[in-house]
Amino acid sequence: MIEKIVDCAIERSITTSDTLLSDEFIYEIVVQKKPCYRSWSPSLKVKLLLNYPDVLEMEVLNLIQDYLSEKSNLLNHEIIHLLQISSDLSQRFQSVLSDHIIQFSSWKLIQLEQSIQQYLRVLPLFESCQQEIEKASFYQVETHRLLDIIRNYIYNGSMLHVSNRRNEVWCLSLTFHRFLWYCVYQLIQWTQNKNAPWTTQSISIG
């Protein structure tokens, strides 16, 4: 019964922009010892997470806690399965996770980010960057092309969320091991040559 009520309320709020479910009600179905929403259909869970940011943030923090404490296999975590069926949820999840990675400054969370991208690879930005890196030679990556992709992503959206998209890009860039190797390699090469100029290519890498 509760599942049907929530489904109808969310559908109505999508079409009318009216929030029919109170924060107290959402809290009760999500935070209780045995949350009833765990038994709901995946599609309804996705709707709930997309329409109630606090619930999504709670799930992100739960995933972070489980990952850091190694309580469960990442692939067995429910949120991962939900991300695989909804690109919109994946995008929202990526934004929230990136903000927390910046906030906590933990390399273990970078590893979490790497694992999630490895399993999902559903975000257009990830795919675009990955294609550029894969078609480059091992010792040469076209950083200017990557910068164009990144700039377009950051500045083509709402100005209100520029900082969030910057966080996403920074975290995403750390998931490409080959690109990181290339950047480190080129910077080391530059430092070993005392007469090497700081070129536009160096700026792109740095």
Structure report:
With 206 residues, the chain is mainly alpha-helical. Helix content is 72%, strand content 0%. The protein contains 12 helices and no strands. The chain has helices at 2-16, 23-31, 42-51, 53-69, 78-85, 87-104, 107-119, 124-134, 143-155, 162-173, 177-192, 200-205. Helix 6 crosses helix 10 and helix 8 packs antiparallel against helix 9. The protein is elongated. The termini are far apart. The model has no long low-confidence stretch (mean pLDDT 77).
- Point out poorly predicted stretches: none
Oligomer: single chain
Strand residue percentage? under 5%
Query: What is the number of strand segments?
Result: 0
Structural class: mainly alpha
Q: Per the principal axes of the C-alpha atoms, what is the gross shape?
A: elongated
Biggest pleated sheet: none
Percent helix, as a range, is over 70%
Summarize the structure.
The protein is mostly helical and 206 residues long. Helix content is 72%, strand content 0%.
Secondary structure: elements and pairs:
Layout: H1 2-16, H2 23-31, H3 42-51, H4 53-69, H5 78-85, H6 87-104, H7 107-119, H8 124-134, H9 143-155, H10 162-173, H11 177-192, H12 200-205
Helix pairs in contact: 1-3, 3-4, 4-6, 5-6, 6-7, 6-10, 8-9, 9-10
